[in-house]
Amino acid sequence: MKLSIVVPVYNERETLPLLHQAVHTALANVPYEWELILVDDGSKDGSLEVMESLANSDSDHVRVVALRRNFGQTAAIAAGIDHSVGEIIVPMDADMQNDPADIPMMIEKIEEGFDVVSGWRFKRQDTFFTRTLPSRIANWLISSVTGVHLHDYGCTLKAYRREVITGFRLYGEMHRFIPVYANSVGARITEVRVQHHPRQFGKAKYGLERTIKVILDLFTVKFLTRYANKPIYLFGGAGVLLIVFSAAILLYLFVRRIFFNVSPFDSPLFPTSLMVAIMGFQSILMGLIAELLARTYHESQGKPNYIVRKLIHPNPPQNNGRRER
After folding, report:
1. Is the pLDDT of residue 325 over 60?
2. What mean pLDDT is predicted for residues 188-214?
3. 21 neighbors 57 (Cβ within 8 angstroms)
4. Domain coordinates in residue numbering, the chain
5. Mean pLDDT, the chain, integer
6. Which whole number is the average pLDDT over 127-145?
7. pLDDT of residue 206
8. Going by fewer Cβ within 10 Å, which terminus of the chain is more open, N or C?
């Protein structure tokens, strides 16, 4: 199987037949096998029945994953990825605002050697103040914090090589951060302009509150991609800064005592410096505990601290002294 298209579905009964037909039309001339994974995320409008009908009438291509309740878009995408078998994964929305006709172009970029092809809704067909503007602010913030500069993190339509997105789990609104995770393992990323159409049926499932969730998830992503393997750099670094700040306060109090004969114990700066110093030591201790947890996590699961892109004339695998059975 070459290609898996993963579509999270929540109350999109009217668009599903149109989506199915559009995918068939877009992939009619592609020279490889493909599958359409429809993930029902607890729909209440009869979407599951429509998906079952499509799967029965097109069993060569359509697969359905029905979740027990509404878990959210990220969980639905993760479920679709877990139940797909394609070498290339293409998530997209079910509301027909993404255009399946862009998929072959994105696959060509993958075949050029890229690991991630991110869609950019250059002419976005959404309400400006409630959706487009908050999205632009979030995209700028994510790009600035992570260093992975994309115009449109919120566009679900992206293409990934399977190997760059199967080493981590997705929570919250984390699906939009997949390019950041992929970049952390050395993925080659590019961005292409894709079409974006006005919504024909129903209404948008998200509003301004989603931007707040994305900003909160950004803290988690930054920590996991930069400090997950060496948390002491974060906690220890913060602890050292606190201790240095505390030492500077004590030095100021000492100088004031020597040259101006002012007792340091009469100033609120003295207990403040002690409190800051204690916080610094606690932060360093937290970093050491986090180091133990990180090492336990990696070593208990046999996870290496490196990722191999490819091997050229590899040596035969060694059994490290283990006896073959």
Report:
1. no
2. 81
3. no
4. 3-226, 232-300
5. 88
6. 85
7. 63
8. C
What global pTM score does this model have?
Answer: 0.79
Structure tokens at 130: 């409630």
Angle at 78 between CA 73 and CA 81, to 5 degrees: 125
Neighbours of 269 (CB within 10 A): 15
Q: What is the average pLDDT across 243-252?
A: 95
Percent of the chain scoring above 90 in pLDDT: 60
Handedness of CA 240, 243, 247, 249 (dihedral sign): positive
The 3-class secondary structure across the chain, one letter per residue, is CCEEEEEEECCCCCCHHHHHHHHHHHCCCCCCCEEEEEEECCCCCCHHHHHHHHHHHCCCCEEEEECCCCCCHHHHHHHHHHCCCCCEEEECCCCCCECHHHHHHHHHHHHCCCCEEEEEECCCCCCHHHHHHHHHHHHHHHHHHHCCCCCCCCCCCEEEEHHHCCCCCCCCCHHHHHHHHHHHCCCCEEEEEECECCCCCCCCCCCCHHHHHHHHHHHHHHHHHHCCCCCHHHHHHHHHHHHHHHHHHHHHHHHHHHHHCCCHHHCCHHHHHHHHHHHHHHHHHHHHHHHHHHHHHHHHCCCCCCCCCCCCCCCCCCCCCCCCC
Task: Look at residue 320 and tell me whether its pLDDT is greater than 60.
Answer: no
Angle at 90 between CA 87 and CA 94, to 5 degrees: 145
Quick check: 166 and 81 in contact, CB under 8 A?
Answer: yes
pLDDT at 124: 86
CATH of 3-226, one of 3.30.1330.40, 1.10.10.10, 3.40.50.1820, 3.90.550.10: 3.90.550.10
pLDDT in tens, 21-58: 999 999 998 888 999 999 999 999 899 999 999 999 99
